[in-house]
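Data availability (excerpt). All sequences and predicted token strings are deposited with the supplementary files. A representative entry, Carbohydrate ABC transporter permease, is shown inline so that the format can be inspected without opening the archive.
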Amino acid sequence: MNTLDASLKRPPGRAPARPRRSALSPARLGIYAFLLTAAAFFLLPLYVMLVTSVKPMSEIRLGNLLALPTHFTLDAWSAAWQSACTGLDCNGIRVGFWNSVRIVVPSTLLSIVVGAVNGYALSFWRPRGAGLLFGVLLLGAFIPVQVMVYPLVRVLASVHLFSSLLGIVVIHTVFGMPVMTLLFRNYYASIPQELFKAARIDGGGFWRIFFQLMLPMSTPIVVVAIIMQVTGIWNDFILGLVFAGTKNLPMTVQLNNIINTTTGERLYNVNMAATILTSMVPLGVYFISGRWFVRGIASGAVKG
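Structure token line:
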């Protein structure tokens, strides 16, 4: 009877009021507790690295791992960048930084261009055997790198590209091509075929349609490809160690030489500073371009 009276008194057109949930329900408290625990689990190592990198060694030896520094100093950062020993050379990790830049930029551009052209051709032109070619490319994406190291060493040595900048760029381009082809092929597969057919009727050829129609529409997936390639190539260790040569060792290899040195004193503050410096580029890419990555994935990277 009370419910009927309340419904008769409610003005017409107004929805019944929903019961208000408690702001601190057990379920909400459980979600917050889980999120805080997960955040602490992932942020605690970063906190230890940052705190250790700004402490002098005399303070680190006291063993207070989580304590804030009583004597704040950036000497470890300066040493890691300018004077840390990466083997016989003591020029810091900056040499590896510029080596990584010289490797990442051409490798990223070449792998994206090759992947975009492959995806465009497999989506619209569909030459004979396109399905088989696409399957072979996908198979190459799942072959472990370690299985292909020795054959690639022999191939590059036979063409005089082993231990050279061009050689490591070619290697990263080859290993990035299957994933880039998959991304662009699936993205172009979500574009209506009518656009391509209209361009063909207007007299557009292979390259004209690609550069004037498809490429301007590919900004979201290009951003996704750049993020994936930059972070993947920058974080690579095994390929840079094997194929780059002593003059082109990337930052990750030189970081390993700093941390795993067997001579002298273990400078944990310098090691932490060098580790953070090495990871700054991937972290910066994710923080700056994270929303573009999500947009690119949502606009077709996983369609098709």
